[in-house]
Every structure is written in structure tokens, then in C-alpha cells.
Amino acid sequence: MDRTVVAYVIYLVVSIALTIWVARTLSRNGRVFLADVLQGDEKLADAVNHLLVVGFYLVNLGFVALYLSGDDTIRDTRGIFEALSTKLGVVLLVLGAMHLANVYLLNRIRRRGVLEREQLPPVAPQGWVGTQGA
């Protein structure tokens, strides 16, 4: 088998495994965070969590597929490691950037919800107070 094909196979196996591991980890640990963001609505938190995981898979696996092609033919074993380190390093950076972007956006949503809850009056208004002496 050609060394370039070997590098492609290793790249795909490792990239897909990393994507699955990161998605499962984020899904499992992010559920509590989403429930807090969505003010305790468990069903909505599960639905949003699932949608985020599907989007995560689509974006990352699409990137892995697009980034598969290489510039040169790999001539030796050292070339396999060099190509893999570059490709996997970029995939890891993209996974990390996606994770940070998700956490940042969800935290902004959470903060907005906390501010809205704090601004509600403690007691609903009972009615209008009339003006005196009018």
C-alpha cells in the first residue's frame, strides 16, 4: 500500500475518533450548563444539546474531509509523521476553537438570562397610584 494512503487512513481514523470523543465529552458535560442557561428546562436543554452535537459533527467531519487531500506524495516513514502531525494539529486547533466558541456563546446567553431574572420586580405591580390634589 502506498505511504500516502497509509497516512490518509491514519489521519481519518484518528481525526474521526477525536471528533467523536470531543463531541461526547462536550455533550455529557455541557448538559448541566445548558440546563442552567435555559433556566432548568431539561427537555429543551436535551434538544439544544443534541442539535449542538449534530452541528459539531457536521462542521468538524466536513473540515476533516476537506483537509484530507495533501500537496505532495509521502516518500518515507518520516513523511507520514510530518504530514500527520500537521493535519492532526490543525484538526485539534479547529476542535478547540469550536469548543471555545460554543462555550463563549452559551455563557453570553446565560449571562443575559441571569440579568433578565435579576431585573424582574420582586412583586408584580398591584395597580396605578393616583396623583393627589388633582
Short description:
With 134 residues, the chain is an all-alpha fold. It contains three helices and no strands.
Descriptive tags:
134 residues; mainly alpha; 77% helix
What portion of residues is helical?
over 70%
**Poorly predicted spans:** none
The termini sit apart by 96 Å
| Major sheet details | none
Say how many strands there are.
0
Rounded Rg:
24 Å
Secondary-structure-derived class: mainly alpha
Mean pLDDT: 81
Tally the helices.
3
The coarse overall form would be rod-shaped
The secondary-structure element order is: HHH
Q: How large a portion of the residues is in β-strands, by DSSP E?
A: under 5%
Describe the structure.
The chain is mainly α and about 130 residues long. It has helices at about 5-35, 40-65, 75-120. Helix 1 packs antiparallel against helix 2 (about 40-65), helix 1 packs parallel to helix 3 and helix 2 runs antiparallel to helix 3 (about 75-120).
Write the layout of secondary structure elements.
Blueprint: H1 3-37, H2 42-66, H3 77-119
